[in-house]
Design goal:
By secondary structure, the protein is mainly β. The chain has one helix and 24 strands. The strands form four sheets. It has a nine-stranded parallel sheet. A seven-stranded parallel sheet has the order 5-9-12-15-18-21-23. It is globular and about 45 Å long.
């Protein structure tokens, strides 16, 4: 039972059942929930919204980046204050907007080994990872290709761990800070893109 005080609840779901299962969870997580997702395509936006309490929420897909075994148009994590939401191993195929979007979270949001891409370079405001007003967002070992901006930090700090040469390719902007936001590069390899560091106004990029 998810709302018990047991340590962890583990559930394996098919792609079509992932959103319904997330929707079935109580918003107050008093136990941690690990969701293992079988390979396949999720047909709609994956929404993680409004969780609080003391439990973590971990969503596990592929174990390596850009394998295309677990695809989703885009993922939105917002209004969460529980200690951790961990999203692992998804490929986002959205070509009309942001691939991974975080908004107004006060808990720790962690994206690991996720892939965002478009077939050709985007000239519109389509971004890979966009953090808006979420104070604890970490992106690690992810790959972004052909987006207008790979990583956007708006109003608050976004932390990016990019240790390999595959971090970014053919993006108009790689690290883009605006609205007084800050992007902190914890580690980085060789980075490709037209504009590696872009900031607007009093925003900062720290590396």
């Amino acid at each position: 039972v998810v709302h018990s005080f047991s340590n962890t609840v583990t559930k394996t779901v098919n792609p079509d059942d992932l959103q319904p299962y997330i929707n079935s969870l109580p918003k107050c997580l008093q136990a941690s929930v690990n969701i293992n997702v079988n390979p396949g395509d999720i047909p709609q936006t994956l929404n993680v919204n409004g969780f609080y309490g003391g439990g973590n929420l971990v969503i596990n897909a592929a174990s390596t980046v850009s394998t295309y075994t677990h695809t989703v148009p885009n993922i939105v994590v917002q209004n969460c204050s529980n200690p951790l939401v961990n999203v692992y191993g998804f490929t986002a195929t959205n070509t009309t907007g942001n691939s991974f979007y975080t908004n107004k979270n006060s808990g720790f949001i962690y994206f690991n080994k996720c892939f965002a891409f478009e077939g050709s370079k985007s000239t519109a405001s389509h971004h890979g990872f966009y953090n808006n007003e979420s104070s604890l967002v970490y992106v690690s070992n992810c790959y972004v290709n052909n987006k207008f901006a790979a990583y956007v930090g708006s109003r608050v700090t976004m932390n990016v761990n990019a240790p390999t040469d595959e971090t970014n390719s053919s993006n108009t902007h790689v690290f883009y800070a605006n609205g007084g936001g800050e992007i902190r590069l914890l580690n980085r390899g060789t980075i490709q893109g037209d504009n590696i560091f872009t900031r607007a106004g009093n925003s900062r990029i720290v590396y």
